[in-house]
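User: Some background: our group keeps a shared notebook of sequences we're curious about, and every so often someone picks one and asks for a predicted structure to add to the entry. Today it's my turn. The entry only has the sequence so far, pasted here. Could you supply the structure so I can complete it?
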Amino acid sequence: MPGQGLPLHVATLLTGLLECLGFAGVLFGWASLVFVFKTEHYFEELCEPNAGLLGNATGQDVLPVSPPDCRAQDERFSLIFTVASFMNNFMTFPTGYIFDRFKTTVARLIAIFLYTCATLIIAFTSAGSAVLLFLAMPMLTVGGILFLITNLQVGNLFGKHRSTIITLYNGAFDSSSAVFLIIKLLYEQGISLRASFIFLSVCSAWHVGRTFLLMPRGQIPYPLPPNYSYGLCSGDSAREKKETAESKMMDLQSQEFLSPKEEIPGPGQLEEPRSFWSYVFSRRFAWHLVWLSVIQLWHYLFIGTLNSLLTNLANDDRALVSSYTNAFAITQFFGVFCAPWNGLLMDRLKQKYQKEAKKTGSSASAAALSSAVPSLALTSLLCLAFALCASVPVLPLQYITFILQVISRSFLYGGNAAFLTLAFPAEHFGKLFGVAMALSAIVSLLQFPIFTLIRGPLQNNPFYVNLTLVLVTLLTFVHPFLLRRECREKGAPPAAP
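Assistant: Of course. Here's the predicted structure to add to the notebook entry:
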């Protein structure tokens, strides 16, 4: 029986990877798309002539035309990205609830509807109707995050490699930002923006086919029951098998409520079930939220302001800005290769610590949780290095910044999802994932006032803002420290920071 299900599991894994890679997180290629929008004169009416140089002109001599002051245009694009990235996170809670309550098929059909509408709106916008981007980009990103949420459960099909699959999908989500680079390159070769987005709209037929042929109608349970089937293999008895699988899942979870992982906890470790809100207000979740919010703010601020940053550092050299934008987008593609390192690290450490826990009689759940400590600490360290490089106003140094940013970001989201699966019960994953992303979205709204502060009162000098954010980044190291201490108190093997 397992042999019969393996081809279906692999097909689900690979098509889900392609879906996340091609569609889920395209918003974060925003810098490439802004370059195209500026070429198409979107919001160009907000640019103002440089009054200082015009005042020097005489009736006899004509001075070279100065580049116009386009701060208002940059602010408009930054605001669109701020709204879209906010919706990307904030809407994760209601979409997580929809996924938990109405299951996979309903969630995916909503995602397909939003995504198709968004791509069609972008396809038929022009400079005169550019304000529609405020509607289209949030719809695009909410549809994309629903694709990711419904695909994360595929990790349940692969047992001990669950964390690796989850981080792989999050890496594919990061790498999908390269799609907008492809659109930019095609645009430079004569393929219109409209044609590219119409193609993305047509791809919705593939999403629909995958929804009904390669995904479950309900949810993939964990641990996976024997002879579990879905999609193509479910046949006429799909509902009966789903109910059987769900009942087995409930039985298993009632036996090991604190550890919905591969291994069964040792004797004497059972506790009464806790409510969802008790986990939300726990210290563990609160510090994880701080960790996620601070690191995410750095990434959103960097991506949302990259075009204006490069324009300033390159002294308005359009060809140089295009070159660095391409370099940034290319490095984003490699997120899919970076993210699994985090998952492999967590899976290997979890197996190691749980073997030691069995020998010593320690808590298996605490041993599994301790495997997240090095991942959290390493992600904080990567973010700190990325933040320091991004704060130095030297254009060639931004190549290193791009590399550190993509590694840090792929570790962030993969580690976030994997940590939530390890630290909290499986039946609350969708809601907790949504709450974490929604609350961190509120923090991410700071990116627009920060951008306005830099462009206005600070006169394009971000030194003091960057220094403050670097100091705040140091707070993220508290989370792995407290988690390490908690695991030690529960008798888990010590995790190396």
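Suggested note for the entry: Residues 2-46+68-224+237-263+281-489 form a domain with the Growth Hormone; Chain: A; fold (CATH 1.20.1250.20). The chain has 23 helices and no strands.
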